[in-house]
Design a protein that fits this description.
Layout: H1 2-12, H2 15-26, E1 29-30, H3 31-35, H4 42-54, E2 58-63, E3 66-71, H5 77-84, H6 94-104
Antiparallel strand pairs: 1-3, 2-3
Length: 118
């Protein structure tokens, strides 16, 4: 289980791969169609697709001369179940936390105060 979670989260860590997954939510796509909106080579897209395939988030299948990509809908179930375990905690109000830190901690960038001259 841990290896699958690690590979899923590692695959999701890259914004290009997350965008590819979002594109595949709509429908299966040919590799060339997946690559079209990106400003990178087909080889670079192919590497991203390999990572997603190895993480079992997508599958690839050759249909005739064209390689197609398909989102695997159950692939994120294990990660989703794992993340739901954290739903028991209250959400953190980051603005309030930042205000607290500003009040409680001295400013790091402020130069140290010099003692008054006698």
């Amino acid at each position: 289980m841990t290896d699958r979670l690690d590979s899923a989260f590692a695959a999701l860590a890259d914004p290009t791969r997350r965008r590819i997954l979002a594109m595949l939510l709509e429908d299966d796509m040919a590799v060339t169609d997946v690559a079209e909106p990106f400003e990178m080579s087909l080889a670079a897209i192919s590497k991203h697709l390999t990572v997603l395939t190895n993480a079992r988030l997508i599958s690839q299948e050759k249909r005739g001369r064209v390689k197609w990509c398909k989102l695997e809908p159950d692939a994120l179930r294990e990660a989703s179940v794992w993340m739901q375990g954290f739903g028991q905690f209250e959400p953190v109000n980051l603005d309030a936390f930042e205000r607290f830190l500003e009040q409680e901690l001295p400013a790091r960038d402020a130069p140290p105060e010099e003692p008054p001259e006698a």
